[in-house]
Amino acid sequence: MIRAVLFDVDGTLFDWETAIKRSLEAVVQHAPPEDREELPARLVRAIADYTFVRRGEAIVDRRHWLLGLDSRPPWLAALPGAPAQAAELAERFREGLEPVAFPDARPALEALHGEYRLAVLTNSPRGEESLVKLGLRDFFDCVVVLGADERKPRPAAFEKGCRAVAAAPDETMNVGDSIANDVEGALAAGVRPVWVDRYGEPHLTPAGAQRIESLLPLPSFIAGVGGR
Fold first, then answer.
1. Burial of 66 (0-12, 13-18, 19+ CB in 10 A)
2. Interatomic CA distance for residues 100 and 199, integer angstroms
3. Measured in whole angstroms, how far is the alpha carbon of residue 212 from the centre of its chain?
4. pLDDT tens string 179-223
5. pTM score > 0.90 for this model?
6. Which CATH number fits domain 4-14+100-224: 3.40.50.1000, 3.90.550.10, 3.40.50.720, 3.40.50.10380?
7. Distance of CA 166 to the CA centre of its chain
């Protein structure tokens, strides 16, 4: 029986693409006039190079949380001729990154809350801060922010998550968007993974995992595989 559900934050509950777009729109007006038209597209490409982990044609992890720690690398790549201004704009951009929840996050959590032990298991140092800003923190019994030496996909990360919710691995489901971190890591730890694939990645779903495109069917799916 499934007794507990672990959630990733970034890309699962937190819509980074919308947050990035909003911050870029506010900051690009401070860029050199000659760069303003092409800068957003250059930055989107540079951010992808900075945050995406690829395996062939598939993106297996989107480490957007790096932008909240240091946004300078993509800005320096997009404005190579103006490093001082790029650094200044990068800091404006970082400060303007406000979390945005996916529309399906709250309904899914409302349906699961009270039925299962819910926890967040995140590599992001700002995971709990993001949840508070999103207004989603109260749905979770606890938030497990993983240190640099214990981050997903290490099996120890999921073992720590299971201890936090007082459930065995085979009683626990992990929900996340990263095939490398959330799916393969959970499988290695004996936790049942649900892959939230919002982008139609060209990657086969690993045996033992479930692939969904939205969080809305998650409560029914958990109930169908041995939940309450």
1. middle
2. 17
3. 15
4. 999 999 999 999 999 999 999 999 999 999 999 999 999 999 999
5. yes
6. 3.40.50.1000
7. 24
